[in-house]
Amino acid sequence: MRVISPRVADDARDAGLDRAREGDQAAFADLVAPLRRELHAHCYRMLGSAHDADDALQEALLRAWRGLPRFEGRSSVRSWLYTVATRTCLDVVAGRARRALPVDLGPASDRAVLDSAPAGHVAWLGPYPDAGLADGPAAPDVRYEQREAVELAFVAALQHLPGNQRAALLLFEVLGFSAAEIATMMHTSVTSVNSALARARRLVADRVPPASQRQTLRRIDDARLREIVTGYATALEDGDTDALVALLTEDVTWSMPPLPQWYRGLTAVTDFARELPMTRCGSWRHRATSANGQPAVASYLRPEDAGPYLAWSINVLTLRDGRIAEITSFLGAEHFAGFGLPDSLPPVSAGGSDQQPR
């Protein structure tokens, strides 16, 4: 295998940068390509929506292309692109309400709410397709690994921070930029950055569990993880309340944005499961996936006795002690394309079964 020395790689990058400055769009695309995935994840962390991240990254890259003649190369291309992406996201944050989950809006419901309607006035947090996201840290000596930093609890906590605190925390704790670099990126002082970091750390510490899902999953063997994911899907497909309850913690929660209601504890969650998805909705098929660095299940619903199963929800599972502690069901077929999932599944052929996740 041919080994390319750092000097040769640097020369190639510099040559590509020169071509991009001269208007070569292909050269610019080559510069951006190795960073596109992590830049998109950064935009998601800032904005709490994969769709908003798509738009923000597109706008940031357009700004970067237009500003390329002014880029003097005093910082790395990576640092410069993160500067542009962060400022773009801050513009979005300034003009929109923060993203929320049902638990942010009010107390849990004790019984199943049968006539719930979507709360269209709320900007809801969305799931994140994590395929292709790096497993490890983005830089040495950072606090959060890349997948830890898209976990639901962490991203939900970020939404409670003002934009400058959100940006400072992500740039420092996730991406490894120094306080001095962040001050330059955000046009502020090192003192202001350190103050923003201190405030952000306190709020996030209050809202994020001590053990991340990344740490929790490392303590669960693959067989048990498959058992949990398959068991959840099969229990819904079979309408087996007891099988579902056996997978849940005593204090389990279940929420379904954009529906505002949510449920806490085995009694309330069991009542909801029995009254709605297991009896009144129709029949289900499922596919295992992953979202936000966590195990997830894509649900397909067939409301009638015939026809295809239609994309319904991405269910992100939060685990604790080998059981499901939270189910966050993001309702909406619009989430499926980002996961590379079809928008429908065919009926099971004669002699087949709907009882295993596909």
> What is the number of strand segments?
7
Q: So what's the overall shape?
A: globular
Order of helices and strands: HHHHHHHHHHHHEEHEEEEE
- Average pLDDT: 92
Helix content: 40-55%
Question: Class by helix and strand content?
Answer: alpha+beta
Radius of gyration: 22 Å
Residue ranges: pLDDT <50 for 5 or more in a row? 1-12, 350-358
What does this protein look like?
By secondary structure, this protein is of the alpha+beta class. Helices cover 43% and strands 15% of the residues. The chain contains 13 helices and seven strands. The chain has helices at residues 6-21, 25-32, 36-47, 50-67, 77-95, 152-158, 163-174, 179-185, 190-207, 213-218, 222-238, 241-245, 266-275; strands at 248-255, 262-264, 283-291, 294-302, 309-320, 323-331, 344-345. Strands 1, 2, 3, 4, 5, 6 and 7 form a seven-stranded mixed beta sheet that branches. Strand 1 (248-255) and strand 2 (262-264) form a beta hairpin. The two termini are 39 Å apart.
Summarize the structure.
This protein is α+β, with helices and mostly antiparallel strands. The chain is built from 13 helices and seven strands.
